[in-house]
Input
Amino acid sequence: MNQTNSISQVLNQQLAKFICSGVAIVVASRNQRLEPHLCRAWAAKLSDDRQQLSLYLPTLQGRSCLADLAQNRQFCAVFSRPTDYFSLQLKGECIQIGADISQQQCQGLDEVQLYWQQFSQALQDVGLTQQQSQSLWAQGITPVTVAIEQCFGQTPGPDAGKELTG
Output
């Protein structure tokens, strides 16, 4: 099966909309010694063909993940809706790490602003205050683009961890 067609089929419009909504995003990586690193990501944007994903990692808090991605390019991210834990995991290869973006510059990135509004609201829906959700915001972010190779369902239950195929 052609991997390119498979990912496009798996990431249908409904899942694409989910990925790019205000869900919790956690990026995972590992270094040469196989030590894992995690960080949040702020906003996701899929390419029109749904083959590539752009994420915004916090520059300071994500420095270990960013170093790992630069070194070995292996990428994993989990997308989870805070209100019901519907979750997806994407794996692939990092193909680009962009220049750091300051907090002020983030104000001009529509996808980051929309994500932050949606995620902040989702956190408030599960009981966090606006002040608590704002404390999660990063001072600067670094854009990362990845080629998506695999997609897994990660919603808790009997199908958690099952690879989704087209």
